[in-house]
Amino acid sequence: MDTKSSRTAFSIGQPVVYPQQGLGIVQAIRERMKDGQSIRYYAIYLEQADMTLLIPVDRAREMGVRSIVSKDEAMKAINSMSGRAESLPADWKLRYQRNQDLIRTGTIGAIAKVVQSLYHRSKVKELPVQERKLYENALELLIDESCYALKKDKDEISNLILSKLEK
Q1: Which of 78, 81, 89, 141 is least enclosed, having the fewest CB within 10 Å?
Q2: What is the CATH number of domain 3-67?
Q3: Average model confidence (pLDDT) for the chain?
Q4: d(CA 129, CA 111)
């Protein structure tokens, strides 16, 4: 096995973010045989969904798995929601696709943008079911990572986010 493929970016016990799924903990690094080759996988436990994902070590970054953001990055994302929300397409399908694409990037800033835009949209007109679910999912992703980064509980982070959205 060459040294490049034997390196890992994440260690056992490390919290990570998996786009669209949220916060998880690297529980193990496992090897499995696939097509006659030994492939290393991160076993990432996602408490929110109560499931473990196996992500190939060599493809983890490409798939968007990343470390938890710093305290400063979390606050920057939360504070960014105080400003004026970007204008969104009137067609909910176009809005939904745009917001899905933002969430897929996996960055906390993009997730904060989705929360902000859908929150403000919901104040103008009730969100369609799929958009409401997308909003709730994005909000949960933002809260979970921010709780971990800022070392605060969910209620405190939820109240902080709501206060920024209301400005």
Answers
A1: 89
A2: 2.40.10.170
A3: 90
A4: 19
What one-letter code names the amino acid at 148?
A: Y
**48, pLDDT greater than 90:** no
Strand positions, DSSP E, the chain: 15-18, 22-34, 37-46, 51-56, 66-67
How many Cβ atoms from other residues are within 10 Å of residue 139's Cβ?
20
CATH topology of domain 71-166: Methane Monooxygenase Hydroxylase; Chain G, domain 1 (1.20.58)
Give the global pTM: 0.86
Measure CA 75 to chain center.
15
First to last CA, the chain: 55
Burial class for 111, CB neighbours closer than 10 Å (0-12, 13-18, 19+): buried
One-letter amino acid at 128 equals: P
Q: Describe the chain by its helix, strand, coil percentages, rounded to 5.
A: 50, 20, 30
pLDDT band at residue 7 under the 50/70/90 scheme: low
| Shared fold status for 3-67 and 71-166 | no
Distances (CA, A) of 153 to 118, 136, 166: 23, 18, 20
Pairing assessment for the beta strands 51-56 and 15-18 based on DSSP bridges:
unpaired
